[in-house]
Design brief:
Length: 266
């Protein structure tokens, strides 16, 4: 009987420890008293992994139960949120920050007798002090006025020559090819589709992690790029460039089951 109790206790302990180590992708939004807050740094203090809120105040990060998320922004007071059971199972979090107010050190203004009128205020300055100020700022005793600055003549010689145009001949000798070259050409943007097709999928895999695609969505590793094509690669690239991470994740989760059914039929 005792052995059975110990065996059940060990199984329960194993299940609890595995639940503690389980990670989930937590989605959230950052707000303050004025509305959404973008560019807030969010760091999981246990795993040291971090992210930031986008232009809509949204973010996503992996966390386990008991992890602590730290929210920091220059304009706000730092805030920490512990991942409770409710947050972990709902996979949703709302962080409300308080706006930080900066106070300046106290300063004391000394009383003076200045009126703001330059003519009357200058009379209050002692004569010896006025003379010393003028002497220090208007002392030309060390200036040799016999020397000339040759740079002035050099600048004059560097000026372009004035060309007088005869108005009678102004329309003669028009270069037709030169005139056509002045016509505004239509701008053709360079589309880097091939670059995007190889670079963006790799960046998405790095940012969301292999565990998300291959374990949670159950996409086979060898079918990763085919899955992105199935989700419409141009839409995926556009959402990733706009940093709309939550909408991109929603697209993947909506299309994953349909994709898996499709490849199973094949």
């Amino acid at each position: 009987m005792l052995k059975k109790i110990l065996f059940l206790f060990s199984i329960l302990f194993t299940l609890l420890s595995s639940a503690q180590n389980q990670k989930r992708f937590i989605k959230g939004i950052v707000l303050d008293s004025l509305g959404i807050v973008k560019n807030v740094n969010i760091v999981n203090q246990k795993t040291k992994l971090g992210t930031f809120s986008n232009d809509r105040g949204l973010f996503g990060i992996y966390a386990s139960k008991g992890d602590t998320l730290k929210f920091s922004s220059v304009q706000h007071i730092n805030k920490t949120i512990i991942i409770t059971d409710r947050i972990f199972f709902r996979q949703n979090i709302k962080a409300i920050l308080k706006i930080n107010t900066y106070t300046l050190d106290e300063i004391t203004l000394k009383k003076h007798n200045l009126t703001g009128n330059l003519t009357s205020d200058i009379k209050q300055i002692p004569k010896e002090k006025r003379d010393s100020i003028l002497k220090n700022n208007l002392d030309f005793s060390n200036v040799d006025f016999s020397l000339k600055d040759t740079r002035i003549d050099a600048n004059n010689r560097a000026e372009s020559e004035v060309v007088v145009v005869d108005p009678i001949q102004k329309n003669q000798g028009i270069n037709l090819l030169g005139f056509l070259s002045l016509k505004k050409k239509k701008y053709t943007p360079i589309v880097k589709n091939e670059f995007d097709k190889t670079k963006v999928p790799n960046n998405i895999l790095i940012q969301l992690g292999e565990d998300y695609f291959f374990n949670k969505l159950k996409i086979p590793k060898q079918n990763y790029h085919q899955f992105l094509e199935f989700c419409n690669l141009s839409v995926v690239i556009n959402l990733f460039k706009k940093e709309d991470l939550l909408e991109l994740i929603q697209l993947f989760e909506n299309r994953a089951n349909l994709y898996l059914e499709t490849i199973q039929k094949e």
